[in-house]
Design a protein that fits this description.
The chain has 617 residues and is an all-alpha fold. It is built from 34 helices and 2 strands.
Length: 617
């Protein structure tokens, strides 16, 4: 281990007294720590529910939710109420009936045209005419393989072969567009159905199109489709509304998500299910509405249809994390086992991050160590949250300890992992360790980003290696990473510390708006400081003038550096002019400069007016 990590990863007490969140109170009285409602009551209702629907089925669907592979568009409502079915599940056994056709289609690339598809399927046209369900099987297989373009061309080829196309075929194509994230194609296929009386779209087709729009960031189009359904006498179902809420959530429209859940669905007597609530809670979480997220979580616990699951709790914990309510986040995490819910990596990482944001890094590390006891293997996100917590608290040793423990958990450090540790070492002045970490990144297939390079350049500054700082700055351009103003400022500060004023001024002149790098006060401060150390008092004063010309406000550091430049060259008259300007801006020199100036006044017998100016400051 190349870094001096003397202290092991600490193990803190597992029982933590959690005070109420300082950021706000609990919404109403229905929510109480450590869980939602009564943990035992919720657990009993969950057992009763599982008896009627099958414990194994519930667990399978829950697992599908945990890996984020929920299929919102399954027509089976009983599956929908438990979170859908995994995309990695077993394929339709009827696919074997069209296996030759599937093999022919797989040989065609995505660029194949309708003629190619028609030629591949022409021997089977009579079979498709006599058994339209096989067409659905064929198109559904294309949906599972996310081959939206081929699915659409299959539909066109079938029409050319005089196979009667029905709404289920078109819906399967739209579903393929959804899974392939081709929202424009989904809308095109849906629009082609409207003029045809025998191909009126159904709720499933609209829901699939809405889901495709949501995944493509077109939340407005998705909600517009939802509003059109009643006008076309198509009754939206739970799947439709879930797609609409999910679209609003992905678009950051928490108000629309809540309006759909609490107003539109009750108006048509469509009961919200677990997916409805989960999407709405996630929308509130993204919108920073933690109290509303907890209120929805509380409402879920009062129903027998949509009890909270891991996704619900993780979204609520994340909402508390974003609001800085770390006590509430821990309370929700601790309450999950009482609800027969197993915290997952998302739940743990959000709780660790919540602790890190408020400086509770010890508790964050304790949570990380408890995951192994709960038989939950921490992933990169959990480790990153813990390292970031240590980095923010200046605990570089613990940050590195977590970093080196990742291999034992079969977690590979990624870009965020390295950035946290490089930044921790840089802040602690361990510039050699920071640079060694950067050199390790390519070996672990971690790509440095602008944050990595900024921390490395700043580490070079602390190590007095201005040449290496410039190498990093030049390397950024070579790897197609645009240096930011922070990158330039760090490099200039490294050069300024060594008195390389010519290099600093060259870097400053390269910061141009057309390069998307705008100089700020820190940029000019580095230039003034470099000129001061290089004995260039005229250039230092000129750079100070340019601060105001750039419509920036000089800081105390700006004036102090200029004062030191004038003092170094014994330009006393210019010094007192700077002091008058500082007084006008309601500023004053720091204690060191004030003491130096008073001493000079005494030794050189300067005018009383100049001495009075110093005392006024």
């Amino acid at each position: 281990m190349p870094f001096p990590v003397s202290r092991p990863l600490p193990r803190h007490q597992t029982a933590v007294d959690l005070p109420r969140c300082s950021g706000g109170s609990f919404p109403k009285s229905r929510f109480s720590a450590p869980g939602v409602a009564s943990g035992q009551a919720v657990a009993q209702r969950r057992v009763d529910q599982s008896q009627g629907q099958g414990v194994s089925r519930l667990r399978a669907c829950r697992q599908a939710e945990l890996v984020g592979q929920v299929d919102l568009l399954r027509g089976d409502c009983s599956l929908m109420s438990h979170g859908g079915r995994s995309r990695t599940g077993s394929s339709d056994p009827r696919s074997k009936l069209v296996e030759p056709e599937l093999l022919s289609l797989r040989k065609l690339g995505q660029d194949a045209d309708v003629n190619d598809v028609y030629k591949a399927l022409s021997p089977s046209m009579e079979m498709f005419k006599s058994n339209p369900r096989l067409v659905t099987v064929l198109l559904s297989s294309q949906a599972r393989e996310s081959r939206a373009e081929i699915a659409e061309k299959v539909l066109d080829a079938l029409r050319r072969g005089r196979v009667e196309v029905n709404v289920f075929h078109a819906s399967a194509v739209i579903s393929a567009c959804d899974k392939g994230q081709r929202w424009a194609l989904a809308l095109s296929v849906l629009g082609s159905l409207l003029p045809q009386r025998n191909l009126r779209p159904n709720a499933f087709a609209y829901s699939a199109a809405m889901s495709a729009c949501a995944k493509g960031g077109q939340w407005h189009s998705a909600l517009l489709l939802l509003s059109q359904m009643p006008e076309l006498k198509i009754m939206p179902n739970a799947v439709s509304y879930n797609a609409g809420i999910s679209a609003a959530e992905k678009g950051g429209q928490w108000q629309l998500a809540l309006c759909t859940l609490r107003q539109h669905m009750p108006e048509v007597r469509v009961a919200p299910d677990k997916i409805s609530y989960n999407a709405a809670i996630s929308a509130c979480e993204k919108g920073g509405r933690w109290a509303l997220a907890l209120m929805l979580l509380s409402q879920m616990s009062e129903t027998k249809v949509a009890l909270p699951n891991e996704i619900s709790m993780s979204a609520a914990i994340s909402a508390c994390e974003k609001a800085g309510c770390w006590q509430l986040a821990l309370s929700l995490l601790r309450g999950m086992p009482q609800m027969l819910l197993t915290p997952n990596v998302i739940s743990y990482s959000a709780a660790i991050s919540a602790c890190g944001k408020v400086g509770q890094w010890q508790i964050g590390l304790s949570i990380l160590s408890q995951m192994a006891e709960m038989k939950v293997i921490p992933d990169e996100i959990c480790h990153n949250a813990a390292m970031s917590a240590c980095e923010k608290a200046g605990e570089w040793e613990h940050a590195l300890s977590v970093f080196w423990s990742m291999a034992a958990m079969r977690a590979c450090p990624d870009q965020i992992s390295f950035n946290a540790c490089v930044s921790a070492c840089e802040k602690a002045g361990l510039w050699a360790a920071a640079l060694e970490l950067v050199s390790l990144m390519p070996k672990l297939s971690a790509r440095p980003d602008v944050i990595t390079y900024n921390a490395a350049i700043s580490a070079c500054e602390k190590g007095g290696s201005w040449q290496l700082a410039l190498e990093f700055l030049q390397l950024m351009t070579g790897v197609s990473i645009r240096p930011s103003v922070i990158s330039h400022n760090a490099a200039m500060s490294a050069c300024a510390a060594q008195g390389e004023w010519q290099v600093v001024l060259t870097l400053l002149s390269s910061m141009l708006p057309e390069k998307r790098v705008t100089r700020d006060t820190i940029s000019y401060n580095a230039a003034i400081s470099a000129c001061e150390k290089g004995g260039q008092w005229q250039l230092a004063l000129w750079q100070l003038t340019r601060v105001s010309e750039s419509r920036l406000l000089p800081s105390q550091i700006s004036f102090n550096s200029a004062l030191f430049a004038c003092r170094r060259c014994q330009q006393w008259q210019h010094m007192f002019q700077l002091l008058e300007e500082m007084l006008y801006l309601d500023m004053g020199p720091d204690a060191t400069m004030s003491s130096t100036l008073l001493s000079e006044c005494e030794q050189r017998g300067l005018l009383c007016s100049e001495s009075g100016l110093l005392f006024a400051l």
